[in-house]
Amino acid sequence: MDFAKGDGQAEVVTLVTRPAQIGMGHSSEWRRSYLGGLRVLVSSLILESLFDVPLGGRTGRMPSSKKDSAQQELLSILQTASNRLEYLTPNDWTLIVDRTKRTPFRKGDVLIQQGKQMKTVYVLVRGRAKIESSKAVIAHIGPGQVCGEMAFLENGAASATVTAEDDGEACAIEWKALSDLFELFPHLGSRFYRSLAVNLSRRLREQITTKTIAPQS
Fold this sequence. Notes:
- This protein is of the alpha+beta class.
- It is 44% helix and 23% strand.
């Protein structure tokens, strides 16, 4: 089997058996050539599967598509929203989004039910939601903000109910997928937890401020 490289791809040129020419001295050399050509072919197939297009002898990026454009729009929302997970890098968000399921919701839909273990963390992309505990509204969240994070941190049941206030969309990621991601990329996990801590601290301060300035009877 002979191999040739052309335009960055490996091509099988001929397949010829030469029993008469392969002696003890040539067998090892032929085997090395065969394996070398096979490696080139496999490498080419892997690169094509990664980029989804033939490389044509040049390194490059996959051409932009509607899917790429939609993902870039999503990443832009998540990275620029107020009260976002601010310590996450663009690459962190890319890794997280790749493991999420985009979930549309309608006004009045319950994303998280108090007392239940949903095992899902939501990041809002569009729309707003209210967070209630024992029928008391404790916070409102919008694009780029997270809900279901406290149950994830405690590995327990949800401490509040999250209800959509209008139509929108969220990225849903399962606890296991998130935990597996943090095991692969510990620094991403560190930035994620730090971002959650800051957001929870802000939420607590807002509640304290609201109670402090509430009109006294």
